[in-house]
Design a protein that fits this description.
D-Maltodextrin-Binding Protein, domain 2; Alpha-Beta Plaits; single chain; alpha/beta; 16 helices
Length: 482
C-alpha cells in the first residue's frame, strides 16, 4: 500500500491529531510509506558473495555528512542517524566490514564516489546522472518529500503552475537535478545544506524549499521555525533512499540487497523511534480510543503481512538457490558465477586472478561402460574431491557436462599451475566407486589487462585442448603476453 495514495488523508489526520502517541503515527508512516520486509534474519549469501567478503576485508563508504535525522557526521567524524543505524544493522546481517570515508560536504562525497575512493555511497535516490557511474540497491528507506513555505503562503497543488517563484535546493541533490529538468518555471537557489534552504524560506529570501516528511516533522518546530508550514506534497518525487555502488562492484550490490531484504519492519521501526521522538505541548488530546484502534489494526496487518512475506522470502531464497546451483553436484553453476565482475575487479585493482578449466578424461567411456547413473556418481564424487582440496576463498563451479571451472583469487599463473597439478595428482590416486581410477586434464589462464570473461575462458579452454592433445592427465598453460 503506497503512502502517497493516503498522504492527503494522513496529513489532515496528523494535523488534527498531532499529539497522539508517537508509536501509532510512526507505525502508520512505516506501513504506508515503506515496503513490509521479511522478519529479522541473517542474509543468506551465495558462494560468490561469501568469496567477495573474504577477498574484501573492508568496504569503503561515503555518506552525506549533514542530513540529519537521516545521516550525518558528529564531532568525532562518526556516522550517525537513521541510515547509520540501518547500515550497522545491514553490516551485522551480511558480514560486511563497512569503513567510513569521511567528507565535509555532500558534493565531496559524490566526487569521492566518482573517483572510486569509496566503493559505495549511502542514502541517495537513483537518477540518470548518478546511473552513469553507480548501480543501486533496493530502497533502504522510503519517505515522501513535501514543500515548505512561510505560513502566509497558499497551499500548492501543482508546482508546474507556479510563476516568479524561487525555490532553495541542496546543490548536487537528486531534487535539484529533477527540478532543474522538470520545472523550468522555477528559479533555483542552490544551497550547501538543507538547513540553509529552510532558513532562506524563514527569512523570506526564497519562496519555498523541499524537505523530506521525516525531516520536516522533526525539525520545523524543534529548530524554532514556527513561521513555516507544509504547503503541499510532491507525487512522483519521493525519496527512495538506496545505496549507490560503483558499477564494477555488482557482487557488493547483491550482498547489500540481501542485507536490505533481511531487515524486518520491526527493526526499521525501532530505529525510526530512536530518532523521531517528537514532543509538542501546545494542545493535548485525551481520547486515544481511535488511535488505539488504529494501532491494533496496524499491528494485525503488519503481523499478517510479515508472515506471508517471510514465506515468500523463503520461497525466493529457494528459487535463487536452484537457479544458481547445479542440481547434481550442488556446486555453483554458470548462472551463479559472475566471472565478468571478478575479471573487471582484478583489472581495476591490479590483483592477480587465475582460472583452471578441468575436464574428465574419456568420460564417455564411463557412461558407455557403466551407465549414466554411475557417471553421475563419478561427477558428484569428483566435485567433492576437488572442492575439499581447494582453499576456502576459491570458487569451483560445474561449467558444463564433465567440465569444472575453478576461480583462484589473489593467485598468479605459476601458483595456479602448481595448484592444478596437485588436484590432478589427487584425482589420479583416488579410487572411485564402481569405476576405479580416472584422470582429469586442466587448462590454466591468468587475467590480463585486456581480458574479458570470454577471452579468459577461451584461453583456458585452448590450454585444456592442448593438455588433451599432449596425452591427458596433465595441465597446460600459456605464459601471459608482455
Amino acid at each position: 500500500m503506497s503512502f502517497l495514495l493516503h498522504f492527503g488523508v494522513l496529513q489532515r489526520w496528523v494535523i488534527s491529531h498531532r499529539f497522539l502517541p508517537l508509536w501509532v503515527g510512526l507505525g502508520l508512516l512505516l506501513f504506508l510509506g515503506g515496503s513490509i520486509k521479511s522478519l529479522a534474519s541473517p542474509a543468506q549469501l551465495t558462494v560468490t558473495e561469501r568469496a567477495y567478503l573474504s577477498v574484501h576485508p573492508q568496504v569503503s563508504f561515503c555518506v552525506n555528512p549533514d542530513w540529519l535525522p537521516f545521516e550525518g557526521l558528529n564531532a568525532n567524524q562518526e556516522h550517525i542517524g537513521i541510515v547509520a543505524d540501518l547500515m550497522t544493522l545491514l553490516a551485522n546481517k551480511t558480514g560486511l566490514n563497512i569503513v567510513l570515508y569521511p567528507t565535509h560536504t555532500w558534493e565531496e562525497s559524490i566526487q569521492a564516489s566518482k573517483d572510486g575512493r569509496c566503493l559505495a555511497i549511502s542514502s541517495l535516490n537513483a537518477t540518470p546522472e548518478r546511473e552513469k557511474w553507480l548501480i543501486f540497491t533496493e530502497p533502504l528507506l522510503e519517505d515522501p518529500n513535501v514543500l515548505i513555505t512561510r505560513d502566509e503562503h497558499p497551499f500548492i497543488s501543482d508546482v508546474s503552475s507556479l510563476n516568479n517563484t524561487s525555490i532553495a535546493l541542496l546543490n548536487g541533490s537528486n531534487m535539484a537535478e529533477m527540478f532543474a529538468q522538470d520545472f523550468p518555471n522555477l528559479k533555483i537557489v542552490y544551497t550547501e545544506n538543507e538547513d540553509e534552504g529552510t532558513q532562506l524560506v524563514s527569512e523570506g529570501k526564497v519562496d519555498l524549499t523541499v524537505r523530506s516528511l521525516i525531516v520536516a516533522a522533526r525539525t520545523l518546530k524543534s529548530a524554532g521555525w514556527y513561521n513555516l508550514k507544509v504547503s503541499g506534497q510532491l507525487p512522483g518525487y519521493e525519496n527512495h533512499l538506496r545505496i549507490g555502488v560503483i558499477k564494477s562492484e555488482e557482487t557488493l550490490r547483491n550482498i547489500l540487497n540481501r542485507g536490505i531484504a533481511s531487515i524486518s519492519p520491526q527493526e526499521t521501526q525501532a530505529i525510526l523511534d530512536r530518532h523521531l521522538n517528537l514532543q509538542v505541548t501546545q494542545e493535548v488530546i485525551t481520547d486515544y480510543s481511535f488511535a488505539y484502534l488504529l494501532g491494533a489494526l496496524l499491528l494485525a496487518v503488519i503481523i499478517t503481512s510479515s508472515y506471508w512475506m517471510r514465506r515468500l522470502n523463503a520461497l525466493n531464497e529457494r528459487l535463487n538457490h536452484m537457479a544458481h546451483t547445479d542440481a547434481l553436484t550442488q556446486l555453483t553453476n554458470r548462472n551463479g558465477l559472475n566471472l565478468k565482475n571478478e575479471v573487471e575487479r582484478a583489472q581495476r585493482y591490479q590483483h592477480p586472478l587465475s582460472i583452471i578449466l578441468f575436464d574428465i578424461d574419456h568420460f564417455k567411456k564411463v557412461n558407455d561402460n557403466y551407465g549414466h547413473l554411475v557417471g553421475d556418481q563419478v561427477l558428484v564424487e569428483l566435485s567433492q574431491l576437488l572442492k575439499n582440496n581447494l582453499r576456502q576463498v576459491d570458487i569451483i563451479c560445474r561449467w558444463g557436462g564433465e567440465e569444472f571451472l575453478v576461480i583462484c583469487f589473489e593467485t598468479n599463473l605459476e601458483q595456479t599451475v602448481h595448484l592444478a597439478e596437485l588436484l590432478i595428482d589427487k584425482v589420479r590416486h583416488h579410487y572411485f566407486k564402481e569405476v576405479g581410477e580416472i584422470t582429469i586434464s586442466g587448462g590454466v589462464a591468468q587475467v590480463q589487462s585486456t581480458d574479458s570473461a570470454e577471452s579468459l575462458t577461451k584461453r583456458a579452454d585452448d590450454c585444456l585442448y592442448e593438455a588433451k592433445r599432449a596425452g591427458r592427465d596433465r595441465v597446460h598453460f600459456t605464459p601471459p603476453t608482455a
